[in-house]
Amino acid sequence: MVALIPFLLTALIYSLVAIDYWRNVKASDPATRRKLHSRVLAIGLLLHAGLLYDAMFTEGLNLSFDNALSAIAWLTVLIYWVNNLRYPLQSLQAFVLPPAAFFVLLQYGMHESHVLPYLGNPLFMAHLVIAILAYSLFTFAALHAGLMAFAERKLHQKSSLSRLPEFPPIIVMEKLLFRVIALGFFLLTLTLLSGALFSEQIFGQALKFNHKNLFAIISWLVYGGLLLGRQAYGWRGKTAIRWTLSGFVILLLAYAGTKFVLEVLLNR
Predict the structure, then answer these.
(1) % of the chain at pLDDT higher than 90
(2) What pLDDT does 91 receive?
């Protein structure tokens, strides 16, 4: 029971900050409130990082389904927390934190074990770190694209029952979206290249034809096509949102979908 306390405390911090966003969207002093949220979230991120370290590195590297989701949630919150120091994006924070709180509790509830081999291989470790960073950036991009879709919809509505903080200008949100996608695409490219090199080094085959690699390559093509379309044809708005969400769904099938099937459904 004592082991549950830090998980509950971390989830509580994330939840309380999210609730405060929703309850005080019309606060008279948003700058002061934003600083308070930032400091409280910093505590939550430190607690979450400690939980991840204990769960993932106590016995080798345990990258089970629940640990992977929790790590991605932590990195997503961290990326947003850093960006929120520069951009007023409290609306997205309100969406990010509740799932992060859920994944923290899921990590405690499932407590699965999937210790990875080849931990002494520097190429494999580099591949793993880059892949997780790329995944988190695209998670951030997908959430941001969803927020952009909601913001565009609100522009054409005179009234709404929703009580979200004021959105920044669409053009500002769009610039941030493509910066994140460009960085994520670069990291995803490195992920595919390092994965091929590692596979060649260990198995003598640069690229195995499986569901994970197939979906990863398709998502790489989708994001590459989006960046090319942006550069050549000025794609934006709904087109950019559709391509971003499509690429993320495909990437989700490549990684989380594969881990869920193997570890949860097939219990491997």
Answers:
(1) 28
(2) 67
Contact 240, 171 (CB under 8 A): no
Q: Give 164's pLDDT tier (boundaries 50, 70, 90).
A: low
Q: How far is CA 12 from CA 18, 20, 105, 216, in A?
A: 10, 12, 10, 34
Averaged over 166-172, what is the pLDDT?
Answer: 74
Q: Where are the alpha helices (DSSP H) in 29-64?
A: 30-57
Q: Which residues contact 142 (CB under 8 A, 6 or more apart)?
A: 244, 245, 248
Has residue 236 got a pLDDT over 60?
yes
Output phi, psi for 115, to 5 deg. -75, 130
Which pLDDT tens digit goes with each residue over 110-127?
A: 766 655 555 566 777 787
- Let me know: does 216 contact 130? Beta carbons within 8 Å: no
Q: What is the DSSP letter of 62?
A: B
Distance between CA atoms of residues 86 and 74, nearest Å: 19
DSSP 2: T
Where helices occur in the chain by DSSP H, the ranges are 4-23, 30-57, 65-84, 90-110, 122-155, 170-203, 211-233, 237-252, 258-260
What distance in Å separates the CA atoms of residue 109 and residue 105, rounded to the nearest whole number? 6
* Single pTM value for the model: 0.77
The closest alpha carbon to 78, from 24, 41, 115, belongs to 41
CB neighbourhood size of 1 (10 A):
4
